[in-house]
Amino acid sequence: MTTAVELLDVALQAARCGADVLLAGARGDLEVTTKGEEGNLVTNVDIAAERAVRAVIEARRPADEITGEELPPAGREQSAPVRWSIDPLDGTTNFTRGIPYYATCVGAADADGRWLAGAVVAPVLAKTYFAHRDGGAWLADSRGIRRLTGPADGRGARLLGMGYSYSAEVRSEQFVATAEHMRAYTDARIFGSAALAICAVAEGAIDGFVETDLGEHDWAAAAVIAEEAGLRVSRPGPGSSALTVER
């Protein structure tokens, strides 16, 4: 029987391979196109990174299903013991502008849809966030490896992470909702990467996160990390398109 620990090991290896592609790609020639809504960018590096991530998973877990942001699903959809959700480059616009807030994200769910493991690797920031179910949330960076437990109380300011849709119609609705969200916070931050914003709540850098109109790949890995840091995570589902992370 596969354990969450084993899945995390695969997720970490795969995410690191994807992040290596991002680092190399940042120094090369970018091919940038738009998919769907204006501003929703995809580059040749997104696709190369997803291929690198998939290669690791396919080699180590050939019976599993793989879903990702840029490439079609692969594997045994009906009988797969595990489904992987990949965002090879969360923060593509940041990447194209030289802003360092971007990451490769790899999450794993069992056949019942329970999210078991997640890894988020931000190569320029030199940060690796990771967690598996019932194993706590962790961050590896220049300071070593430490456990994440979310934001501390009593700091005198409450920061909300958020983001806005590529759709002008949805974005208008989000602007209206922002006023209500901000009732519980004193200031806001937009990271340009939902995964890194969620991980920032787990790390305690900000106090909460909310965004609508996200794809599963945007939050799959990071949500596991936030939950294992002791935070409440409300994923999109019937009746709500919002993802929220809070103490």
Characteristics:
D-Maltodextrin-Binding Protein, domain 2; alpha+beta; five-stranded mixed sheet; single chain; Fructose-1,6-Bisphosphatase, Chain A, domain 1; globular; 6 helices
Structure description:
Helices cover 34% and strands 29% of the residues. The protein has six helices and 14 strands. It is of the alpha+beta class. It is globular, with a radius of gyration of 17 Å. It has a seven-stranded mixed β-sheet. It has a five-stranded mixed β-sheet with strand order 11-10-12-14-13, with helices on both faces. It folds into two domains: 145 residues, Fructose-1,6-Bisphosphatase, Chain A, domain 1; 88 residues, D-Maltodextrin-Binding Protein, domain 2 (3-Layer(aba) Sandwich). A hairpin with a 7-residue loop joins strand 13 and strand 14.
Q: Biggest sheet: strands side by side, in what order?
A: 3-4-5-6-7-8-9
* Helix fraction by DSSP (H/I, runs of at least 4): 25-40%
Distance between the termini: 33 Å
Please give the number of β-strands: 14
Number of helical regions: 6
Topology pattern, helix = H, strand = E: HEEHEEHEEEEEEHEHEHEE
Structural class: alpha+beta
- CATH architecture call of the largest domain: 2-Layer Sandwich
Strand content: 25-35%
Q: Tally the structural domains.
A: 2
Reading off the top of the CATH hierarchy, the class of the largest domain is best stated as Alpha Beta
Q: Low-confidence parts, pLDDT < 50 over ≥5 residues? A: none
